[in-house]
Amino acid sequence: MDILTTQDGSIRTLTLNRPERRNPITDLAMVEALVCALQSADADPSVRVIILTGAGRAFCSGGDLRQMQPGPNSLIGASPEATRDNYRNGIQRIPLAMEGLGVPVIAAINGAAIGAGCDLTCMCDIRIASTEARFAESFVKLGLIPGDGGAWLLPRIVGFSRATEMALTGDPIDADTALQWGLVSRVVAAEDLLPTCHSIAMKIAANPPEAVSRAKGMLRKACDQSLAEALDTAAVQQGYAHQTRDHREAVAAFLDKRTPHFTGE
Questions:
Q1: How many CB atoms lie within 10 A of CB 159?
Q2: Confidence check: pLDDT of 69 > 70
Q3: Residue 62 DSSP symbol
Q4: Which partner from 52, 64, 180, 215 sits 20 to 30 angstroms from 204, CA to CA?
Q5: CA-to-CA distance for 218 and 225, rounded, in angstroms?
């Protein structure tokens, strides 16, 4: 099974499950499995947070080099246009699926996140790294460019200069450097990685799911909006938020000095 799925309460954990190959994500079967798992979790009202991690010692090795040679399952088409279509119909479906999720995704980065694996972490909303994690935007080492959205994603997280350094050298960085550069928000011991991610997920899941989803969407949109546009979006979204049952419940519970009960309505 390419993706292992487990659920603990309202938290669903998706595990890339090709440890013998360090969890590559470029072939169509893995793309389909991951996109379906993400969309299935998002459509399930019992799921309020997704945790994404990798089986074995690696988080995700990115591309499968065997697919970069001629053959029936190759990423390389008969022409540049055919190769373009392979990317559009393949790995580029993952960032688009991630962008469409209402449920937040926490990356539990247990080991190496290389190439498309590094970009996969950037597609997530929160990134927590094990001390064993390392990151590389290493496409240039193979004579390639980030074909999965990395050139759009990475500068928005670490800034243009650091993203350019990573992309043009292809050199890896360790977990502490990733923390310093803002690529991850925490670095924890390997044995604490999933418990830490679960603790953060529980805090998120305790909040009204509609408000969480709207806040997530606004944070993503704000990166490409002017202040005036962001304020207009906030006014519109707040108008909807004030009409929810969960908002009324939160206010009433605060005034009554009791624990609120949120239903997602």
A1: 13
A2: no
A3: B
A4: 180
A5: 10
CA distances from residue 128 to 9, 52, 94, 178, 192 in whole angstroms, order as listed: 21, 10, 20, 10, 10
Are the C-beta atoms of 103 and 52 separated by less than 8 Å?
Answer: no
Are 77 and 83 in contact by the 8 Å Cβ rule? The answer is: yes
How high is the pLDDT of residue 71? 65
Q: Is a pLDDT exceeding 80 seen at residue 60? A: yes
Beginning with the edge strand found earlier in the chain, give each strand of the sheet holding 49-54 in spatial order: 3-8, 11-16, 49-54, 105-109, 126-130, 186-188
Q: What is the CATH number of domain 209-256?
A: 1.10.12
Non-local (6+) Cβ contacts of 231 within 8 A are none
Domain limits, the chain: 3-205, 209-256
Q: Say which residue the tokens 């989803």 belong to.
A: 213
26, pLDDT greater than 70: yes
CA pair distance 158, 117, nearest whole angstrom? 16
Give the Å distances, CA to CA, from 219 to 58, 99, 214, 230. Answer: 29, 12, 9, 9
- Distance (Å, whole) CA 123 – CA 93: 12
- In the three-class reduction of DSSP (H, G, I as helix; E, B as strand; rest coil), residue 234 is classed as helix
- Each residue of 215-225: pLDDT tens digit? 999 999 988 89
How far apart, in Å, are the Cα atoms of 239 and each of 137, 214, 244, 252?
41, 11, 10, 19
The C-alpha R_g of the chain, in whole angstroms, comes to 19
Predicted local distance difference test score (pLDDT) of residue 171: 97
- Beta bridge partners of residue 135, listed in sequence order: 113, 173
The answer to whether domain 3-205 has CATH 3.30.70.3040 is: no
Q: How far apart are CA 131 and CA 87, in angstroms?
A: 32
Predicted TM-score (pTM) of the model is 0.93
pLDDT in tens, 117-129: 999 999 999 999 9
